[in-house]
Amino acid sequence: MHNRASLILGVAIMICSGWAVYAASGWPWKAALFPMVIGIPVFCMAAAEVAWVLLGKNPAARAMDFQISSDLPGGLVIRRTLLAAAWMLGFFAVIVLVGFPVAVPLFVFLYLRLQGREGWLFSAIFSAIVWALFYAIFKWLLNLPFPAGWLF
Amino acid sequence: MKNALALVAALALAAIAPQAAAQFEGKTVTIVVGFKTGGGYDRTARILARHLPKYLPGKPNVIVQNMPGANSIIAANHVYGVAKPDGLTLGTFNRNLVLAQLTKVSGVKYDMTRFAWIGSAASESTVLAIRSDLPYKSFDEMRKAGKTVVIGATGPGANTYDFPLLLKELLGVDIKIVSGYSSSSDIMLALERKEVDGRAGSYSSLQTFVERGTVRPLVRARAVEPGIEKLPVDENLAPNARAKAIMALRSAPEVVGRPFVMTPGTPEPLLKAMRDAFAKAIKDPELIAEARKAKMDLEYMPGDEALRLVKEVLSQPKEVVDEFGKYIKFGE
Amino acid sequence: MIEAFFEGLLLVLQWKAFAFMLLGILLGFWVGLLPGLGGTTTLALMLPFIYAMQPIEGFAFLLGMHAVVATTGDITSVLFGVPGEGTTAATILDGHAMAKQGEAGRALGAVLASSLVGAIVGAVALALAVPVVRPLVLSFGSPELFMIAIVGLAFIASLSAEGARGMLRGFLAGGLGLLVATVGQDPQAGVARFTFDSLYLWGGLDLVPVLVGIFAIPEIIDLAVRGTSIAGELPAGRLSKGAFEGVKDTFRHFWLTIRCSLIGTFIGIMPGIGGAVSQWLAYGHAAQSARTPEERKRFGQGDVRGVLGPGAANNSKEGGALIPTVAFGVPGSSSMAILLGGFFLMGLVPGPDMLTKHLTVTFSMVWTIVLANVITVAACFLFLNHLARLTSVRGQLLIPVILVLIFVGSYTSNSHYGDILVMFVFGAVGYLMVIGGWPRAPFVLGLVLGKIAENYLYISVARYEAAWLTRPIVLVLLALAVGVVLYPLIQSRRARSRKAQHA
Fold it and tell me: Chains with ≥3 Cβ pairs under 8 A against C?
């Protein structure tokens, strides 16, 4: 998994930096200098990284960063990851469709019920509390306006 | 005859007022501001938001929504095309957006002449100010001295950059523009460090420094504010008609310094009610006291006048616009 | 000056000003804690309420609120891995790692104690700097600020993973950050760079959605995958005992905490650098304090020094940022710009007057910062164990709440859905980086320093041509940057030779 992610990142960076340098070449030099001075080395470094991954030279060293817990079977991890991503994107879709004030309690309720497998009553009360807090802070206290959704 | 007309007018007003009140009662009016919280446009909107309700029929709640992005083009597009013309959405944005429309900046989805204009809450004049410890006491002296004057700027599209650019390109003043400072306050710091010799900007933002004696204003643009009336005006020093037209074009929006509009198609009665409320709120003694404390100088320019000026800008001949576009780029 | 020092304290202790300060603290506590609320926006929204207050009361309120936000923002970073504020993201790396190992209490204790130390150092600096502040700030021009950005970028070397491959990835991440920073309209030629004709991208990418995406989203996914609470399967008993341990850590690494506070104060004093930078420089410096490369590898896994550094720096920078605001009328950060608005409302003109005629007011601000932080830290310690217990709540309950907060938070700063999309994009990037073992800190460094480096370079060259390279401070900073880059290499060489000796 490590290597595939590195490969994806490496290739993505190559594409981005390559395209950036290409786009920058048409600009006046003042605007193009920085993107080129950074983009060209980044492209080369990304190419080197991709080459190394493909050649199989992968260090056991880890980054100074946190590690995704690896004590679960790979298939389960992938399934749960995709599920989590789906929930997040779904939340965004619901926000766009019905607006924040409706989407918030709806999402919390659905997540608790479907993903969290909590009981009906608990989910309903929890969602109500979350919605009340959201309303109190963002709408009533701060008066921040939220756009209407596409549907209503 | 006059009595009859007066009667009809009174009846018409009497008919409008309850209609407007019905529209506003219990609702929330939103002022969409094209900039982040804390800036000049935002503070102007907020001070008005506090005092407008008492003068609006139905006494609605007035709140501010910040919609920064693309130098307020996003906010203008929103108020123009997305908001409903129900009188509940106002917009205030960069005064130079009319120039963006004129120079056909991509992404502009509004037409300044079709907004329902409420008016302008202030005029903002641009001046060029130089460090006081430099020997030039007047614009003429500076030009004749023959030494390069370093002016700090934030970037193209801001008056910190555009005003000195025109002075340099059209009047031939020996100015070197050093651009890239994150804000006008950073330029002031660079000025105290003697890294730059001066900066251009709105008089209201420079006023504190002028009063403290840090800088001296030397030349101004067309709009007038108390304190700078005697300064030479850049347009008047132009060597030819074309140069004068270009400078006038840059300065024109400044008279409509804090524009406020509503969505095109807003019903007449609501627009009128809002205009009246604005005019009264700006003269409200409490607002004036608050504004003075916050160092804001508000003055109402009626919507029709603002619209007239905007139309004037947009009807400039093509050659002037083309040459203008060579110097002035609408920026972030 | 000594009289002003004590008079300032008396001013704050007047019961009305004190009450307003408490109110500000209460407000700031929640603003910092909730990732949905930004300290800057809320500060601006509170401005109108200041109209009704006297100057001292108004300050007590504004500063009380503002001083506290950085502390509670750290709490969110530690407990949930979500940046409570844009300025508290660095605490996530080690702080949240500690929380996941059941050491939430210890991490919180460390964060609170270091925040207090940082705040005091920042306030003391403000008080002491009064006579020297003008010449100090004036001697750092654009060339010097550019070099500071270079020193910051040099820390990328220390924050990468081990070995040549690790360095490569670190620099790749940094380079990517620098490239992303160029999105938007450039201030030299006005070219819209990499904006894909989108108005939203004109001004460049906003920091908060990127940070929330790159840090919070991988954490949430991880939490969802594990299906447990944040602290995992560890027994509940271990959670509460940590707080005092964290405080002891602060004193165990006292000089590091002080040094990081000074870094934060210094960066805060330099206007134009921005609030997000100091925490990362402090983190980089803390990482360097590891004596061997093996020790340094543990950063990002839960080394308490990775919490102390940023915790101290993001509080001390507030005291630092107040200095140019008060002394020059030039705000040291965007929140200071709002505070400046408050100054005008109260008829106080910042500038040299504040250091002479109105010195008492200046000192009362110093005292407000100190008192507000002391009170907040004390209050937090009372609730610490309850806060830490949140890490044993089922992940399934926390996830929807966190998601609601970060979605609302990302949206409300610009009222644009684009921010949420940015959050997703960088969420994906952050996730890939974590899986692939790429360090994220260098990316953030590149992102926050990119614009600064570019702009100040152009200004320096335009103004001084080549002469700026020979300015004394520039040369010192250049040497510092070289030192920072070489330090990890020298360390590993020394470690290798030491191993060879013992073999």
Answer: A, B
- Which chains contact B through at least 3 pairs of Cβ atoms less than 8 Å apart? A, C
Search chain C and give the residue with CA nearest B211. Answer: C349
Mutation target to probe the B interface, by most B beta carbons within 10 A, among A27, A143, A144 is A143
Task: Determine whether domain B126-251 maps to CATH 3.40.190.10.
Answer: yes
Question: What is the ipTM metric for this complex?
Answer: 0.90
Pull the structure tokens for residue B213. 């004696």
Which secondary structure element, helix H or strand E, spans residue B316, and what is its range?
Answer: none
DSSP assignments along B19-70, one per residue: HHHHHHTT-EEEEEESS-TTSHHHHHHHHHHHHSGGGSTT--EEEEEE---G
What is the tens place of the pLDDT at every residue in A116-129?
Answer: 777 888 888 889 99
Structure pTM? 0.87
B294 and C341 in contact by Cβ < 8 A? yes
pLDDT digits (tens, 9 = 90+) for B49-83: 989 999 998 889 898 888 888 889 999 999 999 89
Full domain range(s) for residue C37: 2-493
Residues 51-90 of A with CB under 8 A from C: 52, 57, 59, 61-69, 72, 76-77, 80-81, 83-85, 87-89
Element (H, E) at B151: strand B149-153
Dihedral, C411, C415, C421, C425 alpha carbons, nearest 10: -70
Which chain A residues are Cβ-neighbours of C189 within 8 angstroms? 27-28, 30-31
Query: Which CATH code, of 3.40.190.150, 2.60.40.10, 3.40.50.2300, 3.90.1150.10, is assigned to B2-123+256-327?
Result: 3.40.190.150
Domain definitions of chain B by residue range: 2-123+256-327, 126-251
- H-type alpha helices, chain B: 2-24, 40-51, 73-77, 97-102, 139-145, 159-171, 184-192, 203-212, 241-255, 268-283, 285-293, 303-314, 318-327
